[in-house]
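job 3f2a | input accepted
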Amino acid sequence: MSWYGLYPFQDIFAKRKFRKVLIDPPKFIPGSWCGAGKLWIDEENNEYWLTSRPREGEVMRGYAAEIYKSKDGENYSLVTWISKEELSEMTKTNVQSIENQQLLRDPSTGRYHLYLSLDIARENVAGRENKTIESKWETFLLTSEDPSGPWKPEGFVIRGNLEYDSGEARDSTIDIIDGQYFCLYKARKAGTNIVHTALAVSKDGKNWLKLGVPKVDNEQQPSYFLLSGSIIPGSTGLFFVGTKTLEVVKGAALTKYFVVYRIDYNNLNLETVFSTTWTSLSRFEHRDYPIHTYAQVVFDAIKGNRWLIWIEAVDPNYSKEPGLNLEVDRVLLYTSETRSK
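job 3f2a | predicted structure (341 res):
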């Protein structure tokens, strides 16, 4: 036996292979994206559910939350969507854009939770120069008996009510471990470009306790530090696995880093377990900036012998260049077959 506990992420990364394009953007024009979602696997019904948000530039920013279904984890069909206009009615405010979505099933009620990052600023300001109004992002919750809906609004659950997240409290990675919700989310102080990843926990997915901004290897986070991926239990604790974004390129948070951290939530620290550069294995990824923040790593409990990795990839052919309103993003699937001990 060469290892114990959770399957080694180093091996998962080393054995990854590009599989296919999962979702194309609504149009192949600069500023048109898809992605920023979550893959949830329904073992009871042998179904895969994947969310996404379509975008078509600075005017038609994230205009819907889309929900797709698959029987094999590779071929998805659109089941339903929730429009920006519907969300404006639900929230009783003017929703300017939709970003990251998180789909889970609550263990207490059996209802599905859909978390949406919403820009609720007074005006659509993304991409404007010399703007005097900035975006205001918070996280809204919908619940349903079925992923296909109908969806009931539960309200804003992760609000920008503290100094460190007063500008943005969104782009979450949420998973349920031992019956408890754990959330890593993007936290930006209003009026600044300082972005950190904050940690919160919940018993029911509705009422959240913010633990604060964790250190990284017992050091303060860089001025821009954004995580996107999965939270997975292991024999020595909880682990985050996914992407690490450290820079903004012409308004877009882009990355080429794949990381694994052990989450010490009692001492509010992220301990590096594995860190490497993401190397593109497909012709659909930009060489220098292959990933636009969003990614996920999940064990395929239905197939039982592989891990699924999806990324929101910056396309090198249709994009003018990497950057907000300049690039075209697709959702790509990688797979990694496991081996026995």
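job 3f2a | The chain has two helices and 25 strands.
job 3f2a | closed
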